[in-house]
Write the structure tokens for this entry.
Amino acid sequence: MKYFAVMILLACSVFSAQAAEEMMKKEQCLACHGPTFDDLIKKNVQANSDSGPVNPHVWIPHAGGPDKNATECIDCHAQHSMPPKPGYKDESASLEPCYACHHNYRLKKCSSCHGG
């Protein structure tokens, strides 16, 4: 019986940790990686694209605004444990979400290809 109770507690703690990770919001990410989205942009992180190196944070979202109305960080990045493991580096970040609209893997204004 004692073994069964321990297993249930372990299962609940794993489930709680997973639920907490699923609910991570950009404000929580910016607490360490910001503290504002503009501060994140100033870090000038570069990603390689077919159009050359880009800082993808500059373009999220295109409309801008005081809070940048950015998508959630986990839309492009893997979430790490808290605190992160020593030496952790997110290798999962990708420009793939950008390419949903920027077809042909080019990060250019739509008007550069489409008239209008």
The chain has one domain: 19-76+93-116. Helices lie at 2-22, 26-33, 37-42. Residues 19-76+93-116 form one domain.
